[in-house]
């Protein structure tokens, strides 16, 4: 695969977002147009004509990624460029929250795009405030005592639209990630991938701790890897849960000082979510 992300970009040392985007972009190839709203990824990509991406990049407003991608898709189709892929690279703030209405409309219309949410579980580019993707009990600058509500399940929200393909992925499980990008690339219609990208600074990780946190999230079940086709066919891609949630929490400063009963409550939440997902896959 040809590299589509150049070196010398502005990502933080150890950034999982840049690593994830690197593999997604290489898999998508040069015949791709990217839509990148305000986010960490917008900083990494940089402004045209000095972008770190080797493909055209359009930077819309924070809430308008799916609408911009819809317009680009139709413009390309009118030029006969139906093979050119339209790729959105957006953060969780512009996806779970501010861009959700626009995203839902594009999904309802089954617009032909691949929407990739680079989920670092907060507004990390503006000071690590909480988003609706921030997990229960996680401390952020706007929830210093810990977030009192659960994380929104975006994949389930999008699957409820009956879109052709919705899936989760992680660069810590690279073969699974690349397979899903290739699979989504071959499908027409609305496709969405949510990638967990631990933020070294926002999560309180060591510079080399991003991959470990991403792997632990999957292994404890806090971020299960699965895919949903046509809104109803569920497949779990990593069924072995080999460690407790406490191992995942211990690697992050945003959970430091949690009480034992809160850890137990979070373990129960994860177990219940996993049991529900298993039922969906069995059905």
TrEMBL record:
InterPro entries: PorB-like, THDP-binding, TPP_enzyme_TPP-bd. GO terms for molecular function: oxidoreductase activity; thiamine pyrophosphate binding. One of its GO terms (biological process) is small molecule metabolic process. Residues 128-150 are annotated as: Disordered. Residues 128-146 have a biased composition (Polar residues). Residues 58-191 form the Thiamine pyrophosphate enzyme TPP-binding domain. Keywords: Oxidoreductase, Pyruvate. Coiled coil: none annotated. Signal peptide: none annotated. Pfam families: TPP_enzyme_C (PF02775). This is Pyruvate synthase subunit beta.
